[in-house]
């Protein structure tokens, strides 16, 4: 999807007011349709009813119903209550309810909320109508205009101002879209008293030519420090090369600046994959976990939400890769960091982040991460008493309350896990039937047993020190 933003300049103030009225009626129509969809009304019944109520043609009404249905489905997918959706923005609405906000600040917030609530208009593209029937781009001698259907075969024109001189390419692209007769959707929005149009066209991607047949490039995006780690494998999952890309520009700056550099980083990653002829494997991040209280306040939810901010970067990598005909594989990111730092960081003398990228790459090839024999021997030698001693050590040495609480929780879970194994004849790496534990718990216990004692205050990014302990099996030395 390609989206172009442009400001609309109207020939007269009266024309602008007519379009604002159209946007108000369309927004009301969309909210009304949302309420009726909650009550179980079908599209055809709504379409006939809404045309008369809001004085809109059938296409505008159909698009309003589509937007309402999309909002409803999105609310359900996120696990929210569809009946509590607030058009205009829930956060803004809650701020308006606060009594300490008044005067100019209150008026400013109210205007912003009303613009979001009432200042909308959407029109889908139609291939049979050579682009878009209700909101059509027209190229004239004196510029590029948007022709808006305001009812009863009456049209108003607004000049499309696609940006400054450095953004001339936007205007040229809009002209090409208008002349090619390809379908495009137009969304009109009111912001700070000005009316903006967003033109969207769906671009067909070329056939996938670069697949995982010759290997993959695994990508690990890290929140702290801001960087992208990548690892290249062959088709069998063997490590070939790796690298790290700092993302210092994303640590601060405006929204537009961050957006620009996300595209730059995405281009660099895709170029690496293109040069090496490898598919790309990325994490499939999800934000559905809301935490125990349902308000995204838990530690796990905060981590997921922070990673969610990087979905924009991963999405750009995915988009650019598709444009280049490169296969993109999404995998479950669970335990990739733990497995990477314990298994591959000491084995290849690489950082935790690159090791995680390597695990992601192997997962994209369908490879399972089995625990080496030395690691199993270490776990078999580990006792509950040793973990109890570690627990007391953490209580005495770790001053940071948050880290202390986190370590104690992990140690208690490891103790419970080992206790569940005492009744089993031997410890094997497989899901434990009849319990809430899985194969991943072996890795978690191993992390507690070796990482916490070595670095209780802060997890290091270099785990080469574990080479003798885990790879060569030299444990037991104080």
Automatic annotation (TrEMBL):
Assigned keywords, A-Z: DNA-binding
InterPro entries according to UniProt: Cas12f1-like_TNB (IPR010095), Transposase_put_N (IPR010094)
One annotated GO molecular function: DNA binding
Highest taxon above the source species: Bacteria
Designated name of the protein: Transposase, putative
